């Protein structure tokens, strides 16, 4: 992911994983995936969320952590 | 409008509460115990002659001009060094005193050139005033006797001159440098008649330790130390109080004027942030305002390889409006956005975000705080419920232990640095957590009790280890936690940090910090009793920036160091108005006062007032805008007062993003680096040319006052307003105060703020509303804004940016005192005499391994890019770490920084980049190409051409 082009998608994956990692460690009744999804809703534009949700369904989704992948499903 | 004269009470205020009554010249006076007779007299309206005393400094008692008689006491004690006592009867004017004072004055005058009429201080000289006050009429000494009238002036400093002929050796300058600034650059050399003021070891000022703060110039009662501007153009005739536009300390100054010409900036004693002190930037580095490269006419061009064409304001604005409308019609409403600036006023920032939300119809508004303190906002809001520091600057005077992490206040926040150093000299303990041995770690009369030189990128591990010691050694303040915080969260957190894997011993390999030193630091902090944390961009600009802020908040809550003076969590903000820019709703997800765009009630307030529907979804942040631009979905950007090309990470990616846009509008003073990619240039105005407010790092809202007409014709807020009008959205403010009224009407934490209030009280710290009509110096006194303080689990996650065989060193970045950020302003002043290029600091071992000698050109290479600069070999940095500043476009340190960023806010990870350093032989190829391209891009077509 060194070049500027197409690194948008790769960035979304990387950012989602970072966010999921933080919430994985937290104490929360709702669980880390729900917290991650809330964070994405609060800070990402609808377009970014849509792209991310679609990405999670492709093979790029394999590079997502489990929490991040669950969060993508919750974005529906 | 005349000059604002501040009253000099002669000695500082007494801290003692008990009141004391005495009689001065037959009048009863009541003052706090410990007050000097001199100050008590002045407060009661009686002026005692003085020369060596001034209320910025402790009394010294050397000139013997302030003598008084006290009933029942022998002799004539000095009133500046004699404290009042109950029932004391003082006489300040008697024939005996008059005679003594005349004698003193005669001595001074006999060794003073009597050229008052042509002296630069004529009309502003305390020696002259005192000669008048004591009624000096003749001098009995032989003017041809021994004197200093041949002494040569030192003109080495670009901003002030030292002319020893006029020195009366009152040592006010020496004491100002020690007590106020804390640099200890000056001494009195020699003894008796031969004594003279001298920087360092009889060096010129520029060769000495002097940092050109100006405190000595201000303290000097004669023309000995004088601003060059006063020597050149003469004394000012009127003044206005305004706020420095450089850093987040927010020093207030008297802008002293002759007509519309600025003569000098004199720090304002009533300024609650600076208390009469200043640094070289605010005091002297304002010459950029009239620099020849300043652009004052709007310009447009059809593509970025064309030269600029000067046009009328009407044409520039209607062209911009037409382009934005075309782009939205073609690519959709969300294809445009704006960036507001932390350098602009609150009112201007508010207007830009209003333009975006109301006229663009989306939430694509972001601010440069994205790249500095956005994690502070997120982290502190999570922990305490507000996105701001908890204290005022005065608080440091009550601290027993000061923990500084990822901040270099003596360089980046110099006036606060001086105030902190003053407290440290009084005995407060100091802990510094920084990869570099900053000046604070060891400087005259200051030595850190603990310095933890951690590996860049391991803040969270170190903070968790500090917390580990606090919890496992039983140092937590459980009573505070029970009363003020969520107990279950605390327990979960305590269990997490108490785990052996978080111990100082367990993390030492990752952090590089000696476990014993870390334990010592933790005990110091926990035992306070008043411990305060100050932090800067070394905390926020990491992929775990927000987590680090939370870890800091955890530590403060766990030890009960919140909610009173002397403690707290204090972000040191970079730019003058970062706090304000965030407060005013510049983030794509938040309206003013940190209210999320999804909150229906907040949207309803603004929708009703603005007459538009508001988008309930967050907009794009700066990095997202650039990503979207590269992907072809984001097409137009309005940038006010910001140079993202130079200041944002991964320059090549920023350039690619800007290049992909169809309309980039830059509003600035100069053709900055971003303007190389712009299609429209709207000239901006300086802080001297407009009214408004800035909010400093302590949430203090202060006035900016217009002292000259804008060279470009309009203040920046007027330009934004005209752009809105051109887009068909009505805005009709006639003065920035009306914009602040709108902020107050719509934002609960600002409800009480108005220009009238600021006029009355000088400045105010938000929250300012019915509950706190005069503002809030210390936050969370009784309870946290979010009710219960919240402990978050802060697991250390190593950054993905790792060293390896190709890039074995860690680069971290920072700034230095004389320069400011991308340097657009300071590089256009004499401050370049202190710093004319960015240097790469490298440890002797690493340098030797690479055959690099001091001053050599070196190549600096990372995954993102390559640049070249000169090396400076120093053990300030640890082996394995290199350091540079980012003040010069020629270096563009950000060519090598990557686009890794904070997980929560996308604040870039400037502070950690894996790099390799090798010998070079001059600027890198692209640096040469870049400077050619920049030159080409800055062409302005003359009438005849094209
Ligand atoms: S300018 Fe400041 S640092 Fe320099 S000698 Fe004067 S007081 Fe000291
Ligand atoms: S330079 Fe000015 S302040 Fe310093 S000792 Fe001389 S007269 Fe006093
Ligand atoms: S410390 Fe900051 S606000 Fe104060 S004068 Fe210096 S740059 Fe300006
Ligand atoms: S003013 Fe008191 S001794 Fe100089």
CATH class of the largest domain in chain B: Alpha Beta
User: Helix- and strand-based class of chain A?
Assistant: mainly alpha
Q: How much β-strand is present in the residues of chain A? A: under 5%
Low-confidence stretches of chain B: none
Tell the overall outline of chain A. globular
What Rg of chain A, in angstroms, do the CA atoms define? 12 Å
Number of helices of chain B: 29
Number of domains of chain A: 1
Largest interface, with counts of residues having CB < 8 Å to the other chain, equals: A-B, 25 and 42 residues
The portion of residues assigned to helices of chain B is 25-40%
Write down the overall mean pLDDT of chain B.
Answer: 89
Average pLDDT rating of chain A: 85
Ligand species: iron/sulfur cluster, FE2/S2 (inorganic) cluster
The number of distinct β-strands of chain B equals 36
Beta-strand percentage of chain B?
15-25%
Largest sheet of chain B: 7 strands, mixed
Write down the Rg of chain B.
29 Å
What summary fits the major beta sheet of chain A?
none
Helix content of chain A: 55-70%
**Class inferred from helices and paired strands of chain B:** alpha/beta
What does this structure look like?
- Chain A has one domain (about 5-75).
- Chain A is mainly alpha-helical and about 80 residues long.
- Chain A has helices spanning about 5-25, 30-45, 45-55, 65-75.
- Chain A starts with 6 loop residues before the first helix and ends with a helix.
- Chain A is built from 4 helices and no strands.
- Chain B is α/β, with parallel strands linked by helices and about 950 residues long.
- Chain B folds into 5 domains: about 20-135, Ubiquitin-like (UB roll) (Roll); about 160-290, Alpha-Beta Plaits (2-Layer Sandwich); about 300-370 and about 575-765, Rossmann fold; about 375-570, Dimethylsulfoxide Reductase, domain 2 (3-Layer(aba) Sandwich); about 810-935, Beta Barrel (Barwin-like endoglucanases), CATH 2.40.40.
- Helix content of chain B is about 30%, strand content about 15%.
- In chain B, the strands form 10 sheets. In chain B, strands 13-12-27-26-25-14-15 form a 7-stranded mixed beta sheet, covered by helices on one side.
- In chain B, helix 10 runs parallel beside helix 19 (about 545-560), helix 13 (about 460-470) crosses helix 17 (about 515-525) and helix 13 (about 460-470) packs parallel to helix 19.
- The longest helix of chain B is centred in the middle third of the chain and has 19 residues, at about 315-330.
- The model of chain B has no long low-confidence stretch (mean pLDDT about 90).
- Classes of the chains: A mainly alpha (about 80), B alpha/beta (about 950).
- The interface of A and B includes residues 14, 22 and 25 of A.
- The structure holds iron/sulfur cluster (SF4) (3 copies) and FE2/S2 (inorganic) cluster (FES).
- FE2/S2 (inorganic) cluster (FES) binds near residues 50, 61, 64, 65 and 78 of chain B.
């Amino acid at each position: 992911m060194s070049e500027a082009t197409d690194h948008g998608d790769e960035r979304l994956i990387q950012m989602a994983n970072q966010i999921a990692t933080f919430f994985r460690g937290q104490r929360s009744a709702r669980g880390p995936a729900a917290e991650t999804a809330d964070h994405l809703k609060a800070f990402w534009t609808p377009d970014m969320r849509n792209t991310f949700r679609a990405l999670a369904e492709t093979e790029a989704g394999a590079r997502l952590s489990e929490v991040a992948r669950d969060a993508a499903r919750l974005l529906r | 409008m005349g000059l604002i004269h501040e009253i000099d009470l002669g000695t500082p205020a007494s801290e003692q509460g008990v009141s004391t009554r005495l009689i001065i010249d037959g009048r009863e006076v009541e003052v706090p115990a410990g007050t000097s007779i001199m100050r008590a007299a002045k407060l009661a309206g009686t002026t005692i002659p003085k020369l060596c005393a001034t209320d910025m400094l402790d009394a010294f008692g050397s000139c013997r001009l302030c003598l008084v008689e006290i009933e029942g006491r022998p002799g004539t004690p000095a009133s500046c060094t004699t404290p009042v006592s109950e029932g004391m009867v003082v006489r300040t004017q008697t024939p005996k005193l008059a005679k003594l004072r005349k004698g003193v004055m005669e001595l001074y005058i006999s060794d003073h050139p009597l050229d008052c009429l042509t002296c630069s201080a004529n009309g502003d000289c305390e020696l002259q005033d005192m000669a008048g006050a004591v009624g000096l009429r003749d001098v009995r000494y032989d003017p041809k006797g021994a004197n200093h009238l041949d002494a040569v002036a030192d003109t080495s400093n670009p901003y002030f001159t030292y002319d020893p002929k006029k020195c009366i050796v009152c040592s006010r300058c020496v004491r100002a440098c020690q007590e106020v600034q804390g640099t200890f650059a000056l001494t009195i050399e020699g003894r008796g008649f031969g004594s003279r003021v001298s920087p360092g070891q009889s060096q010129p000022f520029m060769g000495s330790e002097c940092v050109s703060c100006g405190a000595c110039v201000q303290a000097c009662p004669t023309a000995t130390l004088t601003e060059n501007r006063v020597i050149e153009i003469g004394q000012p005739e009127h003044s206005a109080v305004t706020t420095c536009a450089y850093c987040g300390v927010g020093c207030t100054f008297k802008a002293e004027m002759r007509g519309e010409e600025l003569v000098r900036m004199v720090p304002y004693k009533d300024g609650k942030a600076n208390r009469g002190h200043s640094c070289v930037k605010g005091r002297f580095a304002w010459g950029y305002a009239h620099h020849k490269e300043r652009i004052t006419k709007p310009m447009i061009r059809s593509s970025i390889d064309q030269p600029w064409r000067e046009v009328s304001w009407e044409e520039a604005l209607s062209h911009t409006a037409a382009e934005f409308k075309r782009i939205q019609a073609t690519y959709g409403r969300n294809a445009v956005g704006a960036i507001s600036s932390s350098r602009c006023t609150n009112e201007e920032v508010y207007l830009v975000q209003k333009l975006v939300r109301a006229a663009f119809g989306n939430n694509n508004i972001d601010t440069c705080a994205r790249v500095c303190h956005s994690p502070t906002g997120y982290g502190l809001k999570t922990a305490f419920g507000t996105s701001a520091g908890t204290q005022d600057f005065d608080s440091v005077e009550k601290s027993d232990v000061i923990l500084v992490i990822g901040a270099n206040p003596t360089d980046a926040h110099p006036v606060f640095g001086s105030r902190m150093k003053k407290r440290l000299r009084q005995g407060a303990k100091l802990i510094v957590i920084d990869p570099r041995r900053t000046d604070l770690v060891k400087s005259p009369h200051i030595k850190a009790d603990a310095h933890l030189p951690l590996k860049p990128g391991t803040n969270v591990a170190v903070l968790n280890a500090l917390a580990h010691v606090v919890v496992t050694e039983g140092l937590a303040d459980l009573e505070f936690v029970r009363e003020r915080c969520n107990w279950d969260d605390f327990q979960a957190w305590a269990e997490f940090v108490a785990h052996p894997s978080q111990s100082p011993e367990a993390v030492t390999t990752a952090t590089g910090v000696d476990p014993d030193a870390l334990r010592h630091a933790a005990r110091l902090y926990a035992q306070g009793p008043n411990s305060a944390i100050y932090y800067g961009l070394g905390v926020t600009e990491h992929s775990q920036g927000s987590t680090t802020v939370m870890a800091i908040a955890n530590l403060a809550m766990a030890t009960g160091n919140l909610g009173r003076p002397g403690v707290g969590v204090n972000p040191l903000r970079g730019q003058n108005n970062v706090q304000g820019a965030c407060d005013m709703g510049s983030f794509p997800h938040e309206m003013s006062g940190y209210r999320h765009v999804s909150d229906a009630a907040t949207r309803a307030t603004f929708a009703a007032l603005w007459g538009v529907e508001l988008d309930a979804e967050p907009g794009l942040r700066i990095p997202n805008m650039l990503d979207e631009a590269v992907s072809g979905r984001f097409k137009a950007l309005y940038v006010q007062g910001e140079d993202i090309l130079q200041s944002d990470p991964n320059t090549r990616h920023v350039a690619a993003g800007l290049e992909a846009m169809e309309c980039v509008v830059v509003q600035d003073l100069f053709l900055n680096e971003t303007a190389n990619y712009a299609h429209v240039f709207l000239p901006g105005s300086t802080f001297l040319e407009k009214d408004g407010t800035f909010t400093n790092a302590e949430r203090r809202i202060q006035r900016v006052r217009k002292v000259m007409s804008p060279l470009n014709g309009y203040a920046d807020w007027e330009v934004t307003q005209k752009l809105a009008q051109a887009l068909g959205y009505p805005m009709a403010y006639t003065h920035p105060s009306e914009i602040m009224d709108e902020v107050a009407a719509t934002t609960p934490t600002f409800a009480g703020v108005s220009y009238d209030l600021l006029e009355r009280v000088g400045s105010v710290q938000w929250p300012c509303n019915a509950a706190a009509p005069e503002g809030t110096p210390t936050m969370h006194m009784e309870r946290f804004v979010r009710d219960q303080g919240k402990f978050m689990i802060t697991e250390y996650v190593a950054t993905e940016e790792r060293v390896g065989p190709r890039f074995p060193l860690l680069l971290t970045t920072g700034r230095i005192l004389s320069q400011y950020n991308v340097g657009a302003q300071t590089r256009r002043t004499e401050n370049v005499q202190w710093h004319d290029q960015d240097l790469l600091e490298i440890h002797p071992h690493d340098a030797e391994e690479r055959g690099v000698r001091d001053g050599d050109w070196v190549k600096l290479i990372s995954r993102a890019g390559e640049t070249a600069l000169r090396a400076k070999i120093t053990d300030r940095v640890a082996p394995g770490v290199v350091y540079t500043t980012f003040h010069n476009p020629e270096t563009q340190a950000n060519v090598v920084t990557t686009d890794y960023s904070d997980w929560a806010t996308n604040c870039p990870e400037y502070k950690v980049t894996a790099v390799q350093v090798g010998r070079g032989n001059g600027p890198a190829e692209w640096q040469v190409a870049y400077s050619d391209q920049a030159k080409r891009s800055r062409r302005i077509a003359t009438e005849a051409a094209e």
